[in-house]
Amino acid sequence: MRHKGRHQDRIELLQGTLDLLILQTLQWGPSHGYDISLAIRTQSHERLHVDTGSLYPALHRLERQGRVAAEWKVSANNQRTRVYRLTAAGRKHLLAERSRWTEMSDAIAAILKPREA
């Protein structure tokens, strides 16, 4: 994740949230690392930027956990690229984590809501 600098209003991701975002992105279809990063940036309206130093370790961890699978392919511009796809275990984990995320964000919203007197 990029740290504060020219974009002070960017949101810093909570621990573990990057995995959720990667899995969600791969639910839309197989992608290589740059496209995953671009999808996160685009879908967040430029608020979330994932640096390669965060993205690739997360992808490798998800691959070791069996949540994503990867294979080498040749891109349209004739370069070798590693393409990642969501596995069945990854889909199952994504559903569980999305549910957990919804519960957590609802709980945080309840705390942030002004108290009634």
* Corresponding CATH superfamily: Winged helix-like DNA-binding domain superfamily/Winged helix DNA-binding domain
Order of helices and strands: HEHHEEH
User: Number of helical segments?
Assistant: 4
The share of residues in extended strands comes to 5-15%
Our count of domains comes out at 1
Shape: elongated
How would you sum up this structure, described in words?
The structure is a single chain. The protein is α+β, with helices and mostly antiparallel strands and 117 residues long. The chain has a single domain, classed as Arc Repressor Mutant, subunit A, CATH 1.10.10.10. The protein is 51% helix and 14% strand. It has 4 helices and 3 strands. It has helices at 17-27, 33-43, 52-64, 88-112, and strands spanning 31-32, 68-74, 80-86. A hairpin with a 5-residue loop joins strand 2 (68-74) and strand 3 (80-86).
Outline the fold blueprint.
Blueprint: H1 17-27, E1 31-32, H2 33-43, H3 52-64, E2 68-74, E3 80-86, H4 88-112
Antiparallel strand pairs: 1-3, 2-3
Helix pairs in contact: 1-2, 1-4
Keywords:
117 residues; alpha+beta; Arc Repressor Mutant, subunit A; three-stranded antiparallel beta sheet; 4 helices; 51% helix
Task: Please outline what is shown here.
The protein has helices spanning 17-27, 33-43, 52-64, 88-112; strands at 31-32, 68-74, 80-86.
